[in-house]
Amino acid sequence: MLGKKEMEDFDRSGDLNTIIGKGSVIEGNVKVQNSMRVDGRVKGQVMASDSIVVGKEGEIEGELRVKNIIIGGRVKGKIFASGKVVLEARSVFQGELKTSKLVIDDGAVFDGTCSMSEGGKILALPETADGRQALSERPVQREAVANR
After folding, report:
1. Spatial contact of 127 and 65, defined as CB atoms under 8 Å apart
2. Within a domain: 137
3. Long-range CB contacts (< 8 A, 24+ apart) of 31-34?
4. How far apart (Å, rounded) are the C-alpha atoms in residues 26 and 61?
5. What is the mean pLDDT of residues 75-103?
6. Are 78 and 63 in contact (CB under 8 A)?
7. Domain annotation covers residue 57
């Protein structure tokens, strides 16, 4: 469970304006300005400019690009989080994770790989001119490759 200090980080986030309810199934790309909660099933690319909360019965399969994410259910795929990732007790994550901060509660299952930046330099979403992260039509490639 999240302690008071960790909850403060999430409380300062934007409004929760999208809820995918229990029994709902969505296939395809989902883009949300601000935060969302998933209690149903989502398969595809999910982008949120703020936080995602995956409820105890929620499931996501695909690529997630987000600031913060709290996982209480199941996630399979890739997560790119510029802020914090929290795996609550009885949650299951399978895949690749790139984040700045990671919290794994006792009883959570982590089956995959994790890369963490030293100074919080993971950019899950592109930045706007004012330095804020915003949704874009294409995923951002932040790794430079030299072919010399």
Report:
1. no
2. no
3. 31/135, 32/135, 33/135
4. 10
5. 96
6. yes
7. yes
